[in-house]
Amino acid sequence: MRDDFPQHVRTNGDSTRSEAPSTPANQPWPAYHHTTGAPPPPPLHSAARERMRRRRVKGRAKGDEWAWVVIALALLAVVLIVSGSLFVFMRALQNQPEPIALARAAQLPTPVDMRTNVNNSSVNSGAQLLLDDGRSIVLEPWDGQSRFTLLLMGIDRRPDETGLQYRTDTMLLVSIAPLTATVGVLSIPRDLFVEVPGYGQLQRVNTPMVLGELQQPGYGPTLAMQTVQYNFGIRVHDYFVVDFDAFITLVDVIGGIDVSIDYTIDDPTYPDLYYGYDPLYMPPGDYHLNGYEALRFARTRHGSSDFERALRQQQVINAIRERILDLDMLPSLIVQAPSMYANLSDNLFTGLTLDQMIQLAWYLKDIPAENIQMGVVDQRYTFNYTTAEGAQVLVPDRALLGPLMVEIFGDNYSE
Length: 415
What we know:
Elements: E1 8-11, E2 14-17, H1 47-58, H2 70-82, H3 86-91, E3 128-130, E4 136-138, E5 148-154, E6 170-177, E7 182-189, E8 193-194, E9 203-204, H4 208-215, H5 220-232, E10 238-242, H6 244-253, E11 257-261, E12 265-267, E13 280-282, E14 285-289, H7 291-299, H8 306-326, H9 330-342, E15 348-350, H10 354-364, E16 372-376, E17 382-386, E18 392-396, H11 398-409
Parallel strand pairs: 5-10, 7-16
Antiparallel strand pairs: 1-2, 3-4, 5-6, 6-7, 8-9, 10-15, 11-14, 12-13, 17-18
């Protein structure tokens, strides 16, 4: 396993380096300790304060403000796992004269050439494809031997907003274990009260992105990764950050998804994309949802907790996977990828290189559904707590989180 923890942040293909707060050794469940150096609060007339003011004006109940959800993150993971197309998005950023994908990823083991049929698809590993922008690519899988873990994050950002200085209201921790050919996916609730390395008091897990961006633009994802690594005892190697538009576009590209519910969803105050309301009502039945409808289905708080919402989001994950596999969409997704990325270049941020995307995508394509383990840090693993300021948060029960990590990621998750 790699001993180096990534200290870089790369967004949309640009790399910047920064001095990161020191990260404790990779312990399964470290005790909280107090540190110093918290950044100042946002300026009086900052964009963050303006967003807070708008939400107060709209008068939604406490805790019901606009929240990003797991599903947009999960969609990227699913596309990565079942289509292999996301790596082509990153290629569209690069204007390289040589279109052949080379195996030189710094953070992954050296891949081997596995020129075999991938999941009975009409596109084979090692095949050369002509993309819709006139370029060609050669597909190569990753054949790593050590665990690789990604932190997938969705930012609380509207269509007219830019940058990374927004809360990550939910997170997905995705870990690939090549020795067992398994993938673990853990949903982390935004109200989890945790230690942020380099800061003196416990904070919600959705705050490191903002704190990091206040330190230095582009540093938010690194601080978020360090926070999850420190509190969950699993080494985090890289990240994805997406917003609403990325989710909607990708669901529409695959032609929507099919879901079934045996209960009524009635959310008259469902928030739209511009601080207004877009009431949602869905009686029991079967539905075919486009991108925006799928987003509403995944995001609604309809009388349920974040835990129940996370389960509904995982229902959407499975629907996306089934849609892509059942209709054998892999060839068309790859060919369309450059034009797809043209619509997503402002909505997706990652520290992965092009080669890493290629290797991981083609390795994960062969992972069967039964080898993908999903879980949620729900009320079984947390305590309700009210802070001195009156905020409602969730304190992790560390005695129970350990067994949950083993269940989702395997016995050697902390190695």
